[in-house]
Design a protein that fits this description.
By secondary structure, the protein is α+β, with helices and mostly antiparallel strands. The protein has one domain (7-97): Conserved Hypothetical Protein Mth637, Chain: A (2-Layer Sandwich). Helices cover 23% and strands 37% of the residues. The chain has two helices and six strands; from the N terminus they run ββββαββα. It has helices at residues 49-62, 89-97, and strands spanning 7-10, 13-21, 28-33, 36-40, 69-73, 79-85. Strands 1, 2, 3, 4, 5 and 6 form a six-stranded mixed β-sheet that branches. A hairpin with a 2-residue loop joins β1 (7-10) and β2 (13-21). The N and C termini lie close together (9 Å). It comes from Sedimentisphaera salicampi. InterPro entries: DUF167, YggU-like_sf. Belongs to the UPF0235 family. It holds the Pfam family DUF167.
């Protein structure tokens, strides 16, 4: 993954930014952009569907529970900050390269 991701860390959590592209043909990580992880999501950007799809996708890829992923900011914006409890930055970097 090109570029450097801005990752904030705390005791038992990490927080990082995402750029979401809703309405894609399938949900997938598609690289990085300006320190954010770019994710295409299949869900439309209405009534929180894209946010739920993003959280479900990340929980699946990180092998964690959806309740361990918190939307910190960007509920109605394509740029979002998520706090992920129990995840290691190395695991995030690994799924971004796959």
């Amino acid at each position: 993954m090109a570029g450097s991701l801005k990752i904030d860390k705390g005791p038992g959590w990490i927080e990082l930014g995402f750029k979401i592209v809703p309405g894609s043909s399938r949900t997938m990580i598609s690289g990085s952009l300006d320190g954010l992880i770019k994710v295409k999501v299949a869900a439309p950007p209405e009534k929180g569907k894209a946010n739920k799809e993003l959280i479900s996708y990340l929980a699946s890829r990180l092998n964690t529970k959806k309740k361990d992923i918190e939307l910190v900011s960007g509920a109605s914006n394509p740029v979002k900050r998520l706090k992920i409890y129990g995840a290691e930055p190395e695991k995030i970097m690994q799924i971004c390269r796959e």
